[in-house]
Specification:
This protein is of the alpha/beta class. The chain has 15 helices and 14 strands. Helix 5 links the parallel strand 4 and strand 5. The structure holds uridine-5'-diphosphate-glucuronic acid. Uridine-5'-diphosphate-glucuronic acid (UGA) binds next to helix 9.
């Protein structure tokens, strides 16, 4: 099938490239000419394992990029909206980019030639949007701008792609959810027919809610593990032993019960807050979801608390921060738990020596003046203490490197290290 993808961020690039891999002809659209050129040159605009090879295989053959909506949409049967849905200042979802994409799609569809004007075209929302958005915002804008209701179908098809594993997750999903009327859903389902996975067919609002419920539940598991972990810490119990045991209950599962410095990334914090915001608009105060966020905001401060229990005044002390990205295997620092930690260390007058295998350049934009080191070893040199903030595998093999510290004080926010000398403390164990 011929597919247009609007937005070449993380979701759009992965979705477009994977659809090409499944045999479809894909045109990616972005208003950013630099990104368009990058994709056409076979270079992914994001860091994602497996993507460079796939893009190279398909670019110029089954995949190309353009900044021209008409060129992409008028030559496609299905258009995916994969643009960003950032949080507004109050945590509620900011739909301005979704709105402008919908308007542009409507205008492009209005340009269809007389022979093509009765050809069925489906516009699919893949961006994470609060329940009701596809029907109440996207569809009306498409129609108001010329996308004819009779021949333009509207669907919602949320993504469940983990950064760092997105290509794998796209090709091996545990669920595919498509919301919309039967004709729109059938059309979108055809795009996935080579993937052996059951398709959940539903309406658009339910599809939208499934995405929020999915992320909110996973975020809840993490905050739950962190809360139990905080209690365990006070009791001298190892929360990892506790979670490993309860995870054996098939109703619970061991996944996403790693206690630590909390969750970051472009999805969990934003999506939970957006659902809280939408619930608030409807007059409902979501107690559990609020607590999930509150626990998550407290966890980085616990790292500081444990540190200052050991070194009361961190002024002019060198603190090594290992890990800047929001999780391992990505250069993405959005909502990284290391950001509030570094901010607090700087407020208290500490000297921060940071190391991350991939994310230093991105973090430099947030904290231009901290010391960026090119290895964990050099960050640790002469440090008065070390905070481990990200679950990078390489931190698991650190050992002798700690001997270069002025004093060995290691506070582990990700259960990466075990040390038999100096001071070693886990955040929740
Ligand atoms: C998350 C979901 O896992 C995807 O299914 C979803 O599609 C995606 O959001 C999205 O909405 O687009 P991602 O943000 O890439 O994916 O990251 P995760 O691997 O889920 O990790 C999120 C955060 O939780 C990280 O900061 C990680 O360190 C933390 N985490 C994860 C824990 O603290 N403990 C755990 O047990 C697991």
């Amino acid at each position: 099938m011929n597919v247009a993808i609007i937005g070449t961020g993380y979701v759009g690039t992965v979705t477009g490239t994977c659809f090409a891999e499944l045999g479809h002809n894909v045109v990616c659209v972005d208003v950013d000419a630099a990104k368009v050129d990058q994709i056409n040159a076979g270079i992914p605009p994001i860091h994602e394992p497996g993507l460079p090879a796939l893009l190279k295989t398909h670019v110029g053959k089954r995949l190309r990029a353009t900044d021209d909506y008409n060129d992409a949409i008028l030559n496609s049967e299905v258009t995916f909206i994969c643009v960003g849905t950032p949080s507004g200042d109050d945590g509620r979802i900011d739909l301005s980019i979704v709105r402008s994409a919908s308007t542009s799609i409507g205008k492009a569809l209005a340009e269809r030639s007389a022979d093509a004007s009765h050809t069925y075209h489906v516009v699919v929302v893949k961006s994470t949007v609060v329940p009701g958005t596809t029907d109440e915002v996207v569809a009306p804008l498409i129609r108001a701008n010329g996308g004819d209701a009779g021949v333009v179908g509207i669907a919602m098809n949320p993504e469940f792609l983990r950064e760092g594993k997105a290509v794998h997750d796209f090709m091996n999903p545990d669920k595919i959810v498509i919301g919309g009327d039967a004709r729109a859903v059938d059309t979108v389902a055809r795009l996935y027919e080579k993937i052996p996975c059951e398709i959940t067919r539903t309406d658009t609002r339910t599809a939208e809610m499934i995405k929020y419920a999915n992320n909110s539940f996973l975020a809840t598991k993490i905050s739950f593990a962190n809360e139990i972990g905080n209690i365990c810490k006070k009791l001298g119990i190892d929360v990892y032993e506790v979670m490993s045991a309860i995870g054996k209950d098939f109703r619970i599962s061991e996944q996403f019960l790693n206690a630590g410095a909390g969750f970051g990334g472009s999805c969990f914090p934003k999506d939970v807050k957006a659902l809280i915001g939408r619930a608030g608009e409807l007059g409902y105060d979501p107690l559990l979801l609020n607590a999930v966020i509150m626990i998550n905001e407290e966890q980085p401060m616990r790292m500081i608390e444990l540190l200052t229990n050991r070194i009361r005044d961190v002024r002019n002390r060198r603190i090594a921060v290992l890990g800047l990205s929001f999780k391992n295997d990505t250069d993405d620092i959005r909502e990284s738990r290391s950001i509030p930690v570094i901010r607090e260390l700087l407020n208290r007058g500490a000297t921060v020596a940071a190391y991350d295998p991939l994310a230093a350049e991105n973090m430099r934009e947030v904290f231009p003046d901290i010391l960026y080191c090119d290895s964990a070893k050099s960050a640790l040199e002469d440090a008065d203490a070390c905070l481990i903030m990200t679950e990078w595998a390489e931190f698991g093999s650190l050992d002798q490197e700690f001997d270069a510290m002025r004093e060995i004080v290691v506070i582990d926010g990700r259960r990466m290290v075990s040390l038999d000398r100096g001071v070693y403390e886990g955040i929740c164990w």
